[in-house]
Amino acid sequence: AKAAGRNGAAMFETSMLAAAERQLTLGRDLSAALANGELSMHLQLQVDHAGTPVGAEMLMRWRRGDGTFVPPDVFIPVAETTGMILPLGLWVLRQACLARLALEAAGHPLQLSINVSPRQFRQPEFVAQVRAAFDESGVPPQAFVFEVTEGLLVEDFDMITTKMRELAALGIRFSIDDFGTGYSSLGYLKKMPLYELKIDKSFMRDTPHDANGTAIVQTILAMADHLGLRVVAEGIETEAQARFLADNGRPCMQGYLYCRPLPLDDLVARLNRGV
Ligand code: C2E
Ligand code: CA
Ligand code: CA
Ligand code: CA
After folding, report:
1. Which residues are in the EAL domain (predicted)?
2. Cα separation, 125 vs 130, whole angstroms
3. What are the backbone dihedrals phi and psi of residue 42, each rounded to the nearest 5 degrees, phi first?
């Protein structure tokens, strides 16, 4: 049994090493990917209760030279640990400005949501870089929502709040992504300049068939209403979910039921068709 235990520990170490090596390779490939044009942005529509498009979330895609896709849930964490998320985040911001200009030109001036990493907030030049990106493109900051995850708010609360206020003064709006999954106290809700809460798709998955999941969604909707915050419910896949939300506060919705994440050109074509 002792030998088996030692053997188990050795196997564990081997697999840890293999995992660390994979991360290293992935990190190297990712920095080359930006230079090689393997990264692109997809956009996923957000609609109001009547199904009218009101915005879109920008989601990063990595297609390797061999045609295979690396999911963001795999490469974003690597980008966070290596620091690559800083140039990537800046690139996303510029892509968002270009996307907004293209949407305006096509007659569809949608509000665009961008995922912003905690690492970006910790960068001293963050606010200046954001301002420069908007100045260069001439796009109004009011056109953008920065999505930040709740986990971010636990650390560096004062620093983050200060930067949020500076960016909010420029006109940028803030959304709490994956709301309810971060185990943080709710005190921050009234201290930060917030515009929106996003109900995580893990809560929507259980709605409306499961009483507990449904209760959580209803509680978030009621709280947002009291705080005067807009809500987007993500992961809407079924008519039953949409009907439930139409009867409960009518938040905006994002999910496969309405639209998959699409390349900009495909999204514009869809908007032009009026669907
Ligand atoms: P997220 O911000 O929570 O984004 C929503 C995710 O849900 C997206 O996954 C989207 O494709 C997926 N989704 C949308 N509708 C549905 C639905 O009806 N059902 C289900 N099951 N899923 C749906 P995606 O594109 O794989 O992105 C995963 C995560 O990667 C994002 O989660 C976000 O945290 C991160 N990410 C993606 N792009 C960026 C980026 O540009 N910057 C940063 N920092 N993070 C990003
Ligand atoms: Ca998001
Ligand atoms: Ca989310
Ligand atoms: Ca998420």
Report:
1. 23-275
2. 9
3. -105, 155
Which band of pLDDT confidence, cut at 50, 70 and 90, is reported for residue 186?
confident
Ligand 1 centroid–CA 72 distance in Å is 7
Of 176, 230, 157, 168, the residue nearest 193 (C-alpha): 168
C-beta 255 within 6 A of ligand 1: yes
| Residues facing 149 on adjacent strands | 177
59-68, 137-146, 175-184: segment of lowest average pLDDT: 175-184
Render 15-54 in DSSP notation, one character per residue.
Answer: HHHHHHHHHHHHHHHHHHHHHTT-EEEEEEEEE-TTS-EE
- Write the single-letter amino acid at 20: A
Q: Which of 74, 87, 77 is nearest to 31 (CA)?
A: 87
Q: How far apart are the CA of 79 and the centre of ligand 1, in A?
A: 15
Token pair, residue 111, equals 């509000």
Nearest 5°: phi and psi at 229? -105, 145
Closest to 75 measured CA to CA, from 45, 36, 32, 44: 32
Please give, one letter per residue, the 3-state secondary structure of 191-242: HCCCCEEEECHHHHCCCCCCHHHHHHHHHHHHHHHHHCCEEEEECCCCHHHH
Ligand 3 centroid to residue 71 C-alpha, Å? 15
194 lines ligand 1 (CB under 6 A): no
pTM above 0.80, yes or no: yes
- Does 149 contact ligand 1 (Cβ within 6 A)? no
